[in-house]
Amino acid sequence: MIDPGVHLMIGALIFPNMDQCDFTGPFEALARVPNSTFVTIARDKSPVRDLKGLRFLPDVSMEDAPKLDVLLVPGGYGQEALMHDEDTLAFIRAQARHARYVFSVCTGALLCGAAGLLEGKQATTHWTAMEVLRYYGATPTHERVVVDGSMVSAGGVTAGIDGSLVVVSLLRGSTVAEEIQLYMAYEPKTPFTAGSPDTAPAHVLNAVTEQARAITEERIKTARQYRALRDRAAGTN
């Protein structure tokens, strides 16, 4: 828990074709952290469309972003387009050097991995991408939220809400987190039991796995390239 008198800067990196719930779910909690400022950050200040077309207007560009105490990195299909984007990866690395926490949601963990933040860490991500984490030096875990030092990772999409409440507790204590949870009326009682691969009916699991097959294969290919480059570099040192 951080001294309540210390003002905190919290920011989210947003990008085209992200999954907006990876961002907006955590925003609900993180924007309510007492004595804090929340900013949205993108490559520039042009509107950003999520993968279903919802538009967001960034507050600042990556170049003009302040030093953050917490950096939120969402995921979504658009994450894959940034895996070789050195401007984005450099921004994540630079913020991570002084941030108290880097908080990834869903496949935002893969962006953190490409930035070199997952080496030797335990982490989680969307279940379709879980096998990809090992290529970035992480130990995958199926926990919904994982805290390993300054790295906090949450699983797929809605797990970001759980993760954000964990981050709030780390910043301002469990009572503040519970107050925010109550304000949000966050008490999930889902009408179905298909929320994880372990509980989904086989035909549902097969259908969603097939829907994600193409992007999963792209992610694995990108991760293998990353690992090969890292291993090659290590071999020359």
Automatic annotation (TrEMBL):
It comes from the Bacteria. InterPro entries: Class_I_gatase-like, DJ-1/PfpI, INH-QAR. One of its GO terms (biological process) is regulation of DNA-templated transcription. Transmembrane segments: none annotated. Residues 13-162 form the DJ-1/PfpI domain. Pfam families: DJ-1_PfpI (PF01965). This is DJ-1/PfpI family protein.
